[in-house]
Please model this.
Amino acid sequence: MTSDRKNCGVLSARELYDRGVAASSSGRLGAARRYLNRAAEASADADLSALVEISTAYLDSETGDLPGALTRLDDVLTRPGLDVRTLGIARSQRGLLHARAGSSESALRDFTDALGVIGDDAVLAGRAYLNRGNLHMQNGDLAGARADFEAVLGCLESPELDANYDKAKFNLGYADQLAGDLVSAMRRIDDVEPRLAALGPLYQATISGTRGEILIQAGLLAQGEKQLASAAQTYGRQRLPLFQGEAEVIRARALLADDPQAARTIARQAARRFRRHGSEVWALRADAIATMAAVRAGSRSLRLVEEIDALLPRLHRERLLDDAAFVHLHAVRVLIRRGDLGDAGRRLRRVRTSASAPIGLRLLRLEIAADLERARGRRSLAFGRLRQGLESLHAWQSSFGSLDLQSGVVGHGRQLVIDGLALAVADGQPEVLFEWSERARGLASRVIPVRGPGDPAVTQELSEVRWLAAQAPAADSPAGRRLAELRDSIRQHAWYGDGSREVVHPVSLTGVTEVLDGRDAGLVAYVTTRERIVALVVTAGRARVVDLGSRDRVDTLLGGLFPDLDMAGSEVPAPFATTVRGELVSRLADLADVLVAPVLDDVGDRSLVLTPSGVLAGVPWGLLPGFHGRPVTVAQSATSWLARSVDPLRLESAGFVAGPRVERAEAEVAAAAGLWAGASVLGVSDATAAAVSALAAGVDVLHVSAHGRHSAENPLFSGVELMDGPWFGYDIDQLTAVPRLVLLSACEVGRSEVRYGEELVGMTAAWQHAGVRSVVASAAAVNDGVAHDVLLGVHRGLRAGLDPAAALAAALPAPTPDAPPAPFVCFG
Model:
């Protein structure tokens, strides 16, 4: 900034103006104002003076003085003798500020008039089209917005002519995001980010904010909020209150479902900020979110409906049609709570949504329509609305190839599933409960996966992540920041995979029963609501619903399960170990009293397929009394299990991997490999990520004995430790082929992160998503000696012709106070 001041005295008015515009475009608003003030003093040319005033008006608006900015432009447009081009620039700029102020009709008129007089000046035309496109997008007219952004690209032809070329591409990405095409949105943003970010902190913040919106829409709330917080801080430091308020509005919208009180507080703060600086249109959007937050918090107040009725015409007047539809639906919800079903129905009919409406709006309308039908006592119609919503969600999901993205976006259908399960439990019919159990379990697994070719760029990034992760750098160190950047990049590349656009329909209860009968097997589907837990037991042509009682008792038992398992599996002094393991045995028995004992009469001695709800993820079912010694397969859903088990499981070749710092790893894999003819073995020194990937792609059975870690922040960065660092869930996506059976003699990698109550994602899910038939893994710490003995027993069973679940059941010792537990589970 010092050099700016030194040079001002020797520059002409035109040079000062040009430097001011350049500084403004790069987000250096303080320098821009200094240049423009000096240009105004030095200029003797009427048109140049007007251009200086136009640019200064823009600075006024960016720093919060929107009324003053409009006054400046009105003054310019009344000056006599100005060139028609100068007047076109002034009209274009006034259109931008009218849009900010919420005067959509005036803004549209100014932009159209400006385009009529600008002529063949590509840069000016590009600017006007860009701003008009933003207005269309603000008003929900995505088709109009796209047309204008494409017109910018047509005018400018390349980013070399003007930065608005990249801004138009960026805005096309934002339009994609609003339309639900998250992959295309991220691709466009990635394409232009290097050039836009180089323009200065303002553009870096805009990119961060938009990425935050995309991450939130993808269900990654913590990561999205982090990006939005970063953007808001930058806007605050740059003294850009309107941009800061926009970031707050987006954050408040993201918090609606999980923390409506915080959403209301943030939205009200944003509304005050916007009104203080003259931006009524954004203030209205903030008002809409604050009102919806009150409804989400449980309000039944008729006064709230009256507030919505006063807000709706103002939203319509500013063409904020999607915002109006969202708010109107929340009024319907209040009326349903109050029992005014007639008015609720009339209002609901007035809220129409097209196929191009945001996915969240379409799903909310169906969710509230189901609420209304349930309140009217028309349960079958309520189920129909909920099914319709989930089918829309699955159609959207199927456009994504990434497991991370598929499982993330299920949050948009969370309430549909919660409501469907509650209705199904209340209905009590086995067919209905089975259907909704399957719909809840299959939120992501219903999408048919696509295996694409490996990405060399991702392979390289994963190698660097391994190297950095082994150093365990501090998060705020250069290496820590680089590690975070690489993880974000890998996730984004994973998102780029194309979806199959194919969705599996849930299997019927009859279809599953026929298969179970032929295998002398049973199915237990555990279903939880907020208050209760029930089991649907299916055997030999019979299906029965068993009420397992209050969910509170199960939640209490589960609360200490993983700490007990981890401690019981550790090397601790004998007296203490006996006490800890005794407490675990008691906890497992108590869990069995709730989850197992009530179903034993129905299942007899059959092998079992379990489809547990998300709260039961990681339960070591084979250690529960009543299930111990019995073949138990834990499936993502009955539908996915049936699809995987159609063909016989042929296991002919095997590969074994010993990771570092596991005392008995090499002994374990050597002993197990001796049971398989021609087995391939990677000892500790040979067990690199590249070698393991090559091995995994060429065998039917893969056995890995290594330390494992579960990553709750990003479950697909869960992994096993190899010689050159961790081998992650993301590495699985890079494989050209996968085994049929994977055995993980590693702590925690059988654990999955629960997203939105039912959706599970982790390393076992990554293997299954890639096409592996079965995974044997543990959700907790495993003693090295126990892992050696159990998995060696599993291999003996496999060689004797047992399937994986039966081989594991035969090898699992019963839990006792005298020995570490073996919490292995067969997932399939």
